[in-house]
């Protein structure tokens, strides 16, 4: 069973599995070769994955976000009538003034409260002084 051949890789003689065969590698070299192919295949697979990720990153980097936003704002502004812009600005201004008016009013109320407290305290002190020296 089998014939003796010289291994194509290591040159050592080896027994083939059958008489009619295309085997030309010894068992060891055949296993090594098989592993090499498997490793090469998985390396190729990994390379392909990495390549596809790199391509996607490239595409993302080419997608210039600030530029896109600028373009969007530009088209939006182009489609807006000047009156719209004025209205938008006025609305913003109104809101701003309202907020600040509220803050100012609150501040004034706080001050008035403090003044009234001070006033009461002064009156109390005056009474004390009066009772002492009056
Ligand atoms: Zn061999």
């Amino acid at each position: 069973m089998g014939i003796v051949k010289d291994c194509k890789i290591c040159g050592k003689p080896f027994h083939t599995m059958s008489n009619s065969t295309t085997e030309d590698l010894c068992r060891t070299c055949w296993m090594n070769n098989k592993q090499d192919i498997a490793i090469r295949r998985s390396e190729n697979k990994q390379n392909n994955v990495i390549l596809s990720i790199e391509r996607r990153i490239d595409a993302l980097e080419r997608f210039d976000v600030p530029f896109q936003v600028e373009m969007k704002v530009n088209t939006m502004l182009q489609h807006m009538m000047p009156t719209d812009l004025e209205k938008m600005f006025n609305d913003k201004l109104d809101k701003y003034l309202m907020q600040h008016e509220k803050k100012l009013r609150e501040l004034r109320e706080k001050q008035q409260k403090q003044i009234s407290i001070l006033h009461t305290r002064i009156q109390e002190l005056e009474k004390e002084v009066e009772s002492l020296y009056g």
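The beta strands are 4-6, 13-15. Residues 7, 9-10, 12, 25-26, 28-29 surround zinc ion (CB under 6 Å).
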